[in-house]
Design goal:
With 274 residues, the protein is an all-alpha fold. Helix content is 77%, strand content 0%. Helix 4 packs antiparallel against helix 5 and helix 6 crosses helix 8. The chain is globular. This is Putative YccA/Bax inhibitor family protein. Keywords: Membrane, Transmembrane, Transmembrane helix. InterPro entries: BaxI_1-like.
């Protein structure tokens, strides 16, 4: 229980707690006067004890989410750096494995730390290889994309914390419509590329002014997705979600971060290519 009144009271405590059973037996043996003394001592101990935290009760905390997300980022960045230096050509394998693991983790009811960590490794392989390719074509672009990713993430967090952006049902519907529309657009562009229709490095619909507009729209969608992620984490903490859900929250944040980075990388490449 998070409430210290219930946590420290013998009436609402764990009946299997040996310490509480011992206190109860002592109080009975003292009789009426002794019971009053024991009750007074118990109350004094109750008010003097520190409040139970969500960590003590095995509930989700912001610290849990931060630690898990930071750990996954370290794994992802380390894997990306190793892939960049040793085997950038493995990015295709990383992309396929990352996609499969992403879908598996997204539909699991109970988060699996092992599968989520493997997802971070696969995405590290993918990002390391693809980043090496972009850096070779556009010197300095990876550093720009990383800085832009951090800036968008920080901006979304500040706006959410300030209350200037609220997650309402209307806001969620708009983001969902935008995501579906973007997914359909991307599939059409991919289909045109496969059939050789049009040109451009990123497909006929992702080049020139249209490609820039679509890229900016995708970055805005990713920022809005961050706000929804933050709100979901906030509700999870407030509602006392199990501590293991920190892995699910971290996974969600990593997915959005990877998507945002790729969109910014592509947008910068379009701008510098033109």
């Amino acid at each position: 229980m998070t409430n210290p009144v219930f946590s420290n009271s013998p009436l609402f405590g764990d009946p299997n707690d040996k310490r509480r059973r011992g206190q109860g037996a002592t109080a009975v043996s003292y009789g009426t006067a002794g019971a009053q003394t024991a009750d007074a001592a118990t109350l004094e101990q109750m008010y003097g004890s520190p409040s139970a935290t969500t960590r003590d009760t095995g509930r989700l905390t912001y610290d849990d989410v931060i630690v898990k997300t930071g750990g996954l980022l370290v794994v992802l960045v380390a894997t990306a750096a190793a892939t960049w230096v040793l085997a950038p050509g493995l990015w295709i394998i990383g992309a396929v494995v990352g996609l499969v693991l992403g879908l598996v983790n997204a539909f699991k009811k109970n988060p699996s730390p092992a599968l989520i960590t493997l997802y971070a490794i696969a995405q590290g392989v993918f990002l390391g290889g693809i980043s090496a390719y972009y850096e070779a074509a556009y010197n300095g672009i990876v550093g720009q994309a990383v800085l832009a990713t951090v800036s968008v993430f920080a901006t979304a967090l500040v706006l959410f914390r300030s209350g200037k952006v609220r997650v309402t049902p209307k806001f969620q519907r708009m983001v969902l419509i935008g995501l579906v529309g973007y997914a359909v657009f991307s599939l059409v562009n991919l289909g045109l590329m496969l059939f050789g229709v049009g040109g451009g490095e990123f497909g006929p619909l992702r080049s020139g002014p249209l490609g820039i507009a679509v890229g900016l729209f995708a970055v805005g969608l990713a920022a809005a997705s961050f706000v929804i992620d933050f709100d979901a984490i906030k509700r999870g903490v407030e509602q006392g979600a199990p501590a293991k859900m920190a892995w699910a929250a971290a996974f969600g944040l990593i997915v959005t971060l990877v998507w945002l980075y790729l969109e910014l990388l592509r947008l910068l490449a379009i701008l510098r290519g033109d």
